[in-house]
């Protein structure tokens, strides 16, 4: 029996999801919370197989919750269920460890399919989200050429960012100013045609 938790601040949506999970023969709803803070207070380390998590929560976000969950138990799976379609939110959630990203416009049948896909070892995304991810990972010749234009210093900075260092930590490590680091990062984003740190980490996470 899969142990399921829900983090959702909309009372009606939380109730619909709770009722839906409760009637699944192979799932048990063991925890439901309306915020990140309520979740970490009530979780208390109990075993969870899958967490259905909204992004736009009061207080800390669902992305913060994903980071916390994976840090506490990397085996707990996370399915983001949200209204956000922005690329930055998608990549931030995936970087935090989410195994799926489904829009709230999805039907209960689609949500059930996504949950089973993730619990079976796969990944799940709404079609529009999957298209954005596919477009990002499609490497155009211009993008490949852009990587060849990276300076040795920029490559070094990317390596440190991949280790999870902040801009200040990178600056201290390389003995250069924070403004210089920001200048280099701006050039990296321009050359790679990306717009944020999450995209940078995803670009190089398997390299």
TrEMBL record:
Could you tell me which InterPro entries the record lists for this protein? CheY-like_superfamily, NreC/VraR/RcsB-like_REC, Sig_transdc_resp-reg_C-effctor, Sig_transdc_resp-reg_receiver, Tscrpt_reg_LuxR_C, WalR-like
Q: Which residues form the HTH luxR-type domain?
A: 143-207
Report whether Hydrolase shows up as a keyword of the record.
Answer: no
Modification 4-aspartylphosphate occurs at? 54
Task: Name the species this protein comes from.
Answer: Pedobacter metabolipauper
Tell me the ranges covered by the Response regulatory domain, including all copies: 3-119
Q: What is this protein called?
A: LuxR family two component transcriptional regulator
**Alphabetical UniProt keywords:** DNA-binding, Phosphoprotein
């Amino acid at each position: 029996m899969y142990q399921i938790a829900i983090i959702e601040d909309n009372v009606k949506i939380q109730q619909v999801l709770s009722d839906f999970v409760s009637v699944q023969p192979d799932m048990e709803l063991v925890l439901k919370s309306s915020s990140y803070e309520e979740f970490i207070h009530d979780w208390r380390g109990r075993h969870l197989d899958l967490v259905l998590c909204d992004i736009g929560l009061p207080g800390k976000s669902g992305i913060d919750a994903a980071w916390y969950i994976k840090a506490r138990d990397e085996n707990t799976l996370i399915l983001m269920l949200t209204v956000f379609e922005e690329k930055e939110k998608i990549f931030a959630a995936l970087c935090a460890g989410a195994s799926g990203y489904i829009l709230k416009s999805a039907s209960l049948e689609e949500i059930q399919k996504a949950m089973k896909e993730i619990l079976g070892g796969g990944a799940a995304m709404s079609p529009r989200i999957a298209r954005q991810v596919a477009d990002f990972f499609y490497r155009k010749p211009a993008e490949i050429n852009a990587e060849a234009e990276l300076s040795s210093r920029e490559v070094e900075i990317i390596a440190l960012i991949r280790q999870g260092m902040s801009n200040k930590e990178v600056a201290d490590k390389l003995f250069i100013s924070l403004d210089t680091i920001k200048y280099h990062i701006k050039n990296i984003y321009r050359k790679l045609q990306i717009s944020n740190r999450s995209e940078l980490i995803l670009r190089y996470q398997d390299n």
